[in-house]
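Input/output pair, single chain:
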Amino acid sequence: MEKKKIIIIGAGISGLSAGIHALLKNFDVEIYESHNLVGGQCTAWHRKGYDIDGCIHWLTGSKKGTSLYSVWETCGALSGETEIVDHDPISSYIDEKGDIYYLYSDIHKTEEELMRISPEDKKEIKHFIHIIRAFQGMNPPTEKPEEMMNKFDMFRFAFPFILKMKKMQFAMSLSVADYAKRFKSQIIRNLLLSSTPNILAANAMFFMLGLRTTGDGGWVQGGSLRFVQRMQQRFGELGGKLFLNSNVKNIVIENNKATGIRLGNNDTLIKADYIVPAIDMYALLYQLLNNKYRIPYFEERFSDFLKYPLISTVLVSIGVKTNLGHRPHSMSFKPSREVIIGNVTHSFITAEHFAYDPAFSPDGNTLVEFLFPDFNYEYWEKLREKSKEAYKEEKKRIGDLLVSELQKVYPETEGKIELLDVATPLTYNRYCNAYKGAYMSFLTIPGNMQKNYKGTIDGIDNLFLAGQWVMPDGGLPTAALAGKFAVQRICKCENINIKF
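Output:
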């Protein structure tokens, strides 16, 4: 019997996950990727002997025994041989006097540290620890899509949330910035504000802390590039066909059914039984589908970025000719002068070094990254339209400023700068074809609980959506799950067992 053929558009995390899961169900699978390498936004780039990681800083599902670990294991991204670094402390803050304060992966040590900093905040500290505990072990369902769950499945998934509902509703009702104000101590406020983008609902911070305090959310040695290369290898070993430098012009729809794709390189038509777009949702709807399909879910979100914000980043990477391994891997501090990135003034900044991973710098050297959340793509777009020189000069100004600040807090780096690289939201748009440079999908802010999209488009049969855009807030784990779920929906159409 001839195998059914699936075409996947995009070789990022979601596309590779979909491809691997489809091959495990004996489909004929082809992936078409416009870039010359796989990974999508799970990416890194080489500069002067350094690797700059543009994606992973910690990974949900790095802990063996968790349901997400089994997904990564199926995809080949993680195995028993993969080295995971679990940072302790999680983060730190250094004040003007040089005293350092920590958030630890050991929740008891964190409570002791906060009590040491501010005994007068005892009641709020106890509440903070209780909420972290409520978020421990809270992961998305990984077994199957929501619409395939029976009543028992739904109860099993929802029960832990129901027990902790009050604490979770509280965490979602406040932004990180507003939650930090509940503490009298400015040091504790700064510790919390440096951990998570301040516009987000506080549940994002508590999810991260809940994860990290249970031994999950570790750093995968080798970073994004090697992580995704293992998935590429797994896809190839299973017999998948990967076509790089292959830009898809549009998806062919015949009699309300997706029947193939047309390549932009040479207008070649390629037929298939099923199509799985695993790409940026804006590009899918307004380019590959020629803006012919109305989807209220996405139209609402793409038209209201105040209610449904998209986050990008300004990433400043500095290579220094010294080993910073004796320093905390993540250090937040108040800059000595005004730091304006885009149109936002940052009251404190965070330096994260990669001395613990030899893949990122030459022997004895260290890569340091400053990451600034950015919500104003238009600022960079207008600057670039004004002139290339104005854009380059602004990147240089930012880079020089961060070098100066790094040398003040780490004086051993002075005179030892070998590399300075500044990436903006325009970089992520150009390099990853990411709408507005967004590295995640629509974010949860206070009073606005996000929901998943169903994974299909009304009026098109045999097309199943993957990618992080169908599962807010997005990120690598949801991208991998969306790829798996797309294949399970196809399996249901073919009366194939959906279990992996």
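The radius of gyration is 23 Å. Residues 103-214 form one domain.
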